Known about the structure:
Chain A has about 160 residues and is mainly alpha-helical. Helices cover about 70% and strands about 0% of the residues of chain A.
Amino acid sequence: MSVVKSPLSDADLKVVGEALQGALIDAVDLSLVAKQVHWNVVGPRFRSIHLQLDEVVATARQHSDVMAERASALGVTPDGRASTVASSTAIKNVPTGWIKDDEAVQIMVDALVVVIGRMRERIETTDKPDPVSQDLLIALTADLEKHAWMFQAESRQADNP
Amino acid sequence: MSVVKSPLSDADLKVVGEALQGALIDAVDLSLVAKQVHWNVVGPRFRSIHLQLDEVVATARQHSDVMAERASALGVTPDGRASTVASSTAIKNVPTGWIKDDEAVQIMVDALVVVIGRMRERIETTDKPDPVSQDLLIALTADLEKHAWMFQAESRQADNP
Amino acid sequence: MSVVKSPLSDADLKVVGEALQGALIDAVDLSLVAKQVHWNVVGPRFRSIHLQLDEVVATARQHSDVMAERASALGVTPDGRASTVASSTAIKNVPTGWIKDDEAVQIMVDALVVVIGRMRERIETTDKPDPVSQDLLIALTADLEKHAWMFQAESRQADNP
Amino acid sequence: MSVVKSPLSDADLKVVGEALQGALIDAVDLSLVAKQVHWNVVGPRFRSIHLQLDEVVATARQHSDVMAERASALGVTPDGRASTVASSTAIKNVPTGWIKDDEAVQIMVDALVVVIGRMRERIETTDKPDPVSQDLLIALTADLEKHAWMFQAESRQADNP
Amino acid sequence: MSVVKSPLSDADLKVVGEALQGALIDAVDLSLVAKQVHWNVVGPRFRSIHLQLDEVVATARQHSDVMAERASALGVTPDGRASTVASSTAIKNVPTGWIKDDEAVQIMVDALVVVIGRMRERIETTDKPDPVSQDLLIALTADLEKHAWMFQAESRQADNP
Amino acid sequence: MSVVKSPLSDADLKVVGEALQGALIDAVDLSLVAKQVHWNVVGPRFRSIHLQLDEVVATARQHSDVMAERASALGVTPDGRASTVASSTAIKNVPTGWIKDDEAVQIMVDALVVVIGRMRERIETTDKPDPVSQDLLIALTADLEKHAWMFQAESRQADNP
Amino acid sequence: MSVVKSPLSDADLKVVGEALQGALIDAVDLSLVAKQVHWNVVGPRFRSIHLQLDEVVATARQHSDVMAERASALGVTPDGRASTVASSTAIKNVPTGWIKDDEAVQIMVDALVVVIGRMRERIETTDKPDPVSQDLLIALTADLEKHAWMFQAESRQADNP
Amino acid sequence: MSVVKSPLSDADLKVVGEALQGALIDAVDLSLVAKQVHWNVVGPRFRSIHLQLDEVVATARQHSDVMAERASALGVTPDGRASTVASSTAIKNVPTGWIKDDEAVQIMVDALVVVIGRMRERIETTDKPDPVSQDLLIALTADLEKHAWMFQAESRQADNP
Amino acid sequence: MSVVKSPLSDADLKVVGEALQGALIDAVDLSLVAKQVHWNVVGPRFRSIHLQLDEVVATARQHSDVMAERASALGVTPDGRASTVASSTAIKNVPTGWIKDDEAVQIMVDALVVVIGRMRERIETTDKPDPVSQDLLIALTADLEKHAWMFQAESRQADNP
Amino acid sequence: MSVVKSPLSDADLKVVGEALQGALIDAVDLSLVAKQVHWNVVGPRFRSIHLQLDEVVATARQHSDVMAERASALGVTPDGRASTVASSTAIKNVPTGWIKDDEAVQIMVDALVVVIGRMRERIETTDKPDPVSQDLLIALTADLEKHAWMFQAESRQADNP
Amino acid sequence: MSVVKSPLSDADLKVVGEALQGALIDAVDLSLVAKQVHWNVVGPRFRSIHLQLDEVVATARQHSDVMAERASALGVTPDGRASTVASSTAIKNVPTGWIKDDEAVQIMVDALVVVIGRMRERIETTDKPDPVSQDLLIALTADLEKHAWMFQAESRQADNP
Amino acid sequence: MSVVKSPLSDADLKVVGEALQGALIDAVDLSLVAKQVHWNVVGPRFRSIHLQLDEVVATARQHSDVMAERASALGVTPDGRASTVASSTAIKNVPTGWIKDDEAVQIMVDALVVVIGRMRERIETTDKPDPVSQDLLIALTADLEKHAWMFQAESRQADNP
């Protein structure tokens, strides 16, 4: 017998539970990736990017908590352990060592674009089964897309719009 | 002639007005029930539950205000008077006198589950007529489901997951 | 055997318990009435009265908590449930629908005057049995009389002093 | 090649971009109109309306920023320049000189009603193409409809409900 | 030998000292007059004017302190005693008893206009002898003229602009 | 017909009204006296006493507001005008010009002792007629007696305890 | 000749001085006892009780300061030294070593009940001689009785109400 | 008959009124221009300039309010409507679309230099007619010149000092 | 040539760099483990442990940042990526699914004891090579040992001290 | 079996436990002594010393908590009961009654010098057994030595440097 | 070609630049002198003067920043290096070693009087060339003259006014 | 006879006193150098470096105060006068005039590296004589090394890691 009685049917719960678990992993890894770059970035834009990355970390941490607690609230146990994150994240591994500022920006653009793509799929799949979870995914996506814009706006590509 | 010109058609307004009035009653009674338990709970977990209940009260009061003011904004006069709450609430009456902590948790689980069920219906009925009101109902439901998880997680049933 | 050992004798406790229970009901209903008017008031003075009423709500909520917790502290279980409030309040029922601003002021004057009268009796009856409870009732009455002055000062009657 | 890679298809982007640009103009002009009335209102209700208008300004400024940054995040450049606002706003021009308080209320009711109507259309058109942008438009509309209620509640018409 | 060595010549000090002492008296009495009206005002606009008057009190108290301490800083002992205020103020005595709201506004307009007239003379006389004191008088006058506008904007006269 | 309906009988009201009016005058004058000394004190202890006096001012201003608003709440119009303060205060007039720090302390001790004596009489006379007003007078007296202790503790007399 | 001139007669001062000195000792020892348990409590309810005890400490420290400064304000020198506290407290000595959570609750119930009993006597004895001191004792007692309720509500005895 | 009685002569008022109206337009347009660039800037310095621009917006909004309310306080009705801003601003129109960071800096340098030139003329013309208004224009100019320095310090030209 | 010139010799840097990298991994994994338990804990002590775990998360996150930035400051690039954490942590893997409260406490005791053991070794090895890094490790260890005490104090074992 | 498993060996634990228990007693008694002087000091410097002593109290209270909780974290039960403090403190007993300001300063110098001497021994004895505890003792000593300087700087002896 | 285009003519810029550079040096040295005395003062008034000096430091630091940034804003590079301060300050060198409190006050009076004299000259010379810079110098002088009064009020000379 | 009795032996005091005096000079000059660059930096990275430098200033000022007060607390009078700083600093003199951003970064790297080298020597020499002072030097060094990393990370050299 389950600990938390879900307000959703089993079928809906399966879809929503997977969406939330996926979003949790993406958000946790995004926070780890952003911290990794935050610590290792170098170059003339060091300070600006160093500070900007901590805002990504704050966003990712806050939403990862929302995703995990939403799963628990629906009766699905979330899994945000290091090994699970390492094995199931879709973000490309960040290289070790110092990271040039231009490269740092590109790493973040790539990571955010991948995660946003997956989030938009989750928004679609949760629409019917649970508009409440969908609303939380929408809020997370809005924040990620804002961060993605800002990194793109300062990437090499934007240098010649 | 009405005081506030509604942005909704009459048919939509009827549906949405009823949803908001119902949500208002549920939220007000939830705040009164939570306070009643807050004052009368006893047992080893007294302090923890006493504090947790005030967070339910805060949630319920804040959303009841949102529901009532949303009704007014649509031109429907809200009714949150004691007699209306007493006669139309769906929450089971709380017994008088001291309440053991285990029982307090169960009272809150029961009250929250009933209210959540009704809120999910309101989310559905308001989807087409007024996505703005629906959004407020979704936010309220998300908060209630989080509270419901927490009380279930500490209920007797969760003791043997 | 009672949960909380009262510092008062049984006779004193009966008097004080009734005073606190009565004050609790009055304070809770005052908060519900003030909210009802807060949501439904209309007229040129809408904004001013709308804001003023939330100050009454804050006062009433804060003191209702003090009254209920004081009862518990003396070993008397407080009862602030919707049905109890609805059946034992002395405040006249507020009409449904929009409320003209002048009428809103008058409703509050009437409600406050009734409650103040009952509070002053409670101050008297608790004087000997429990000066600690009396002190809390005095503080509550001082706040109510300040609100009563302000509504009277802006009522129709004050328009021709 | 565009600066910001949009997560939307070109067709969806066109619809959503127009909705956001329109909402931006409406929000910026609403902030300028509310300030104009804030500075020029006179009459017995001067102070109350003067203060209320600054809350409209705060709402309008905050959401105009959200609309513009959302457009940028989608890869569409927003245009909130004075000349664009002046030429494409749907709000009727405010007369110069002192504005009587009753008239001030009416100006705000009219401006809000016009803007709300357009916002509701934008909510509808963005529903399918981009639920994320739609969510931001819903939040903006909820705030505007609350302001609209308050001005209507204190307008001449509400004086005889 | 004086306690504080003035940076001004004796002639300049005499002019500036008188200006500051006069400004001190006006500011102290303005604070007492505004409080008197704050306590005794009645009528439909009671709350709005009651709150507005406390902002005048805050302004007057803050600047009276600046004026007095500026006098001390120049080596002139300030005199803000009740008897000195009563005998040398230029503000017309406020009547005792309740004050109708319209009348309250007019009392404040009259008091502010009188004080502003005297402040403008002080700005002129201190220009050459001490631009530092003049700067403080300018700041005080700017605040008073803002209050004067607000009371005039809500006075009977403004009702038919 | 009076603006504010008093909860007290006419006889009680007369006693309580006089006590509150007297306390108002004492509190207002105490604030003016303390400011006068605050600006004119000199001597090695200048800074300490200068700061201490602003705490007396804060106390006096806060309680004078309570006294006046309590009178209004009972239906008695308070009078805190400069001329009334000057003519009815019991505090000895402060000399003009610089005030030596030892003398400043003595002025405050004398002023506080006189006011405290009158406050204690008011506590007695209001006991039966209005325990609510009495409670406010008790709170004021407690604050004044704390200030009185502090000034006595640093007066010349305390130098040889 | 005394440092601080007491507003009380010698007879009254003796009674009130003893009450305040007694209350000071009780409050200081309560703060030390609560800290001792705060540091040594163990068991499943460790965290909850650990936190709750710091609220008792805060209450006891704040009121002990009020009691001591009130004594000084009346001209009686307070004595809150460790040796005086140790020799004159009425609270039973706490055992050394780890304290089980149930036992911790019982220790606090016992300590609070003893102190409350003595405080109620002090309220009675100070009623006539000094209503100002009595008011401070009443406020202290109200806080202690609230803490006592909370510990009783979670004690073993409350487990079977 | 005018709503607000001006403390200035008609001739002085004309000069000062024009200066304030001009300053209002410049400040409002500066806020719109800075926001436009804030939203559309791209390039490696995106984030730094994006943040810096919001400080210009804050400065411009705050002073535009001061200018407009100063005009009202003198009895001149301010005009800050979009159409008036668009037609009478002296700031060169900003191009639409993305703006390279270097170009963004230059746009702000140009806009600030133009506005500062006009402000310095206003400081001169208001010197005699109204030192109070002049003081507000001086404060505004000081802030603008600080912003102008910062943008120049990071412009292309400063790259080879 | 290295980006950051280390103030340490190569030999010392190797020792200190390894200590900091190890401490970083432990701190990051501790934050992930604590969050995992925070989301999945159930049982009567749910709320208390849920809250306590977020304090561990806050501690671990703050110190992980200090460790990583200290490594960078010494010229050693930190590695806090999910895969590195997963492969090199010394904390035992947490089971998936709901976690009973008693078990949750034990998981935290075990994790903290392991990490503390490794931290104490790092304190020793860094003593000579770099007292600055050692100081940061000492501060981290002090915080961990405080958390370890608290979880042990509420573990099953403490139930029978 | 002990409640808290110590990270130290038994021998080290004995040394460190005694150091922490001694530091706890000194810190608690310092807080009581400083409060005693805070309440009883008289003389021209009353206010300055009265305030300064509360900073000593805050320091002592904060560090006493750190010492006691550090002991618990190591598995040693702290003892801060009044009787233990009274019997094992090294601070000379403070005389009862009023304390002249010069004498108050000397009492604090003496108390601080004694405690500092003992703390420096504890820093030495804990260096090897537990650098974590030593670090906490160092921080406490730094604060005490700062307070000791300040009291010495204003003592009679410093009057003729 | 200059980095920052000055809004002033070359002739005016020379005068204003010298005034600002001089004010910068005076403000920086005042902050260093006040800190020197802050650290070395001894005597019965140690604490009072120690605290007062940090307010001078705060004033001097804040204005030195304004002066330097104003110079930069006008296109003149400010010079606040230790060697420049040491060689061009007008403040007499402070002796090393402990400073008796009376002497500390005199040092500050002397330093402030010298600096104020120079500031008043700068106010005069900048009046025509740049009223904006003059306004900043006036604000600085007002603050310095307030500090100068306070130190004089507590100097030996003020002891016999 | 010295003002402050040192807890150190004369030999230890000499070593520690010199270390603290040296650290004081370095910290004060670092604050002046950082401000000088803060005011004169130009180039594309102006804003980022301008802000970063104020964080160095805050760090340097805070620690210079700690160093000086620590010296006083040990009985050694600190010397932080401009002439002493100018003559004994080890930081290379900063050139006058505008400073290109790249050069600004290099100046800070150089200054920090020099100061850190000296601080590390002071940490070593104070280890035995006074672990308390050493702890303060360690904290200062940790902050400086963090700043040094950040400037190196954005220096030209880091551009090609």
